[in-house]
Amino acid sequence: MRVLIVDDERRARERLVRLLTAFEGVTIAGEAANGLEAIEQVQALRPDAVFLDIQMPGMDGFEVLENLTTRPHVVFVTAYDQYALQAFAANALDYLLKPVEPEALARAVGRLRERQANLDALVRSRPPLQRLVGKRLQRLHVFPVESISHLFAEDELVFAATADGRFLLNSTLRDLESRLDPAHFIRVHKSAIVNLAHVAEIDPDSRSSGSLRLLSGETLELSRRYAARLRELLGW
Question: Three-class SS of residue 206?
């Protein structure tokens, strides 16, 4: 479970980082010191959960939620108890008072794990996508997923690349990754998913990252973070 910590107080962030990293399977995806940073980090990092302060300069925690286009699980962390009803009305999973006690945090993490497990089970129960709908020149095109060489994010938009060009998709890479067959489609970079049937060559670089050359001649960056899964599937 990847979490984002949002608080304008550095010491409060440091305490949460220290407490959360003690839980097995919890990774700190990033930190934000204000509402604008929080929105940018959620869009860029796509965390599973955000531990969100309420009173911050410029934009409070509730305003952050109103401005998110994709929403992770939310645990509010605040020094004030008068916002509890408003927090749960905003569908927060939990509400923690500062200074956060380890026992209360453990209960919140348990709720997050249970909610995430339920969502994962729901995703697994759905069959893999067989077709996608993409937009180009004001028209909607339906095409089989086998025709896609890769999917990529560019300027906060997501596209499918095929032999007929690229098509704008109304989805996120994370959503697509969860719905496509993982035996054929694999994340190779934070901004790209590749169809293994369209990979022609692999150029590994153990120092940092590598690259993939597709049958189309296009090149994709292979980040070290995702290289291990690719090696497992292709046996190199």
Answer: coil
The helix-helix angle for 10-20 and 102-125 (nearest 10°) equals: 70
SS3 state of residue 9: coil
pTM over 0.90: no
Record: fold of 132-234: OB fold (Dihydrolipoamide Acetyltransferase, E2P) (2.40.50)
Domain spanning 2-125: CATH 3.40.50.2300: yes
In order, the DSSP letters of 120-142 are: HHHHHHSPPP-EEEEEETTEEEE
Beta 94-97 vs 73-78: how paired, if at all? parallel
Tokens of residue 135, six digits: 């937009």
Q: How far apart are CA 108 and CA 51, in angstroms?
A: 10
Residue-wise pLDDT tens digits, 35-63: 999 998 887 788 899 999 999 988 999 99
